[in-house]
């Protein structure tokens, strides 16, 4: 991608300064004031991954997990083309738009997202990874040919501009396909920095302000910001982190604390760098990050990293589903995608992509 024009950088600087005024460095939610974060049920993670050698085409990922058990409920990925150039310190202008679209899609398929809602429905032609599936009573949906397992169910919630209509909603609610658990998003983890940034407005702040969600920035590598550098002193502070949960502040030359280095795991001495994104205090962000760590990287971000862009955002280890409304017939159909078999009119077939096809007519 061509180098950005100076005029564009100046424009971004002004916009960053304007948005920076909207960042809230305080706990705005009741669960944030609880010692064990009582009331927090869902946490999310976002990231963009790139195909090697391609800095324009990327895959935008969003995951939602239960808290505190860290069980994946919802995963979505979409191939996107980035139109904005990469400029150090202005990552939000390049990566925030597709990530905001992923959040908007979650709101569309989850009508009661704010406050906490219930099941997730899928739009026609849209792909998402559905985990935590429930098994429906045998015979509740007629299948074409034999099938070795009970039918699985999905309950679309409401019509949308490109989604299912009331008739199909009613039909699929009665006969449907896959039930997906609640996906209320209480806080968003961003693979990157928040206030720990050259102008105190990293990607986590950018996403937080524009989405108005509590956001936490978690970076794996140290960004050199105003006197905070990887020096012998910094390394000695890391060595002093004796146990999981220990941390030390990242203070600039002026004394302002922009983040903390957190030893997040007993098994790794390498810290992660936590900073405020939006609507959360630094101490709360650090405590929450630690509780979300099964390994070094907090689970919402680690689950995002597990998605494989090289297979067009499809990981064969999970079941994917695509809801298809057959407009040219009277039938409604659900296609479940996976690695092994096709249950079709003639029985069970081996297929590398298609897992199952059911007719709801």
From TrEMBL:
GO molecular function: RNA endonuclease activity producing 5'-phosphomonoesters, hydrolytic mechanism; single-stranded RNA binding
Gene3D superfamilies linked: archaeoglobus fulgidus dsm 4304 superfamily
Broad class of where this protein is predominantly found: cytoplasm
Sorted UniProt keywords: Cytoplasm, Endonuclease, Hydrolase, Nuclease
Assigned GO CC terms: cytoplasm; nucleolus
Source superkingdom: Eukaryota
Localization annotation: Cytoplasm
GO biological process: DNA repair
Name this polypeptide is given: Endonuclease V
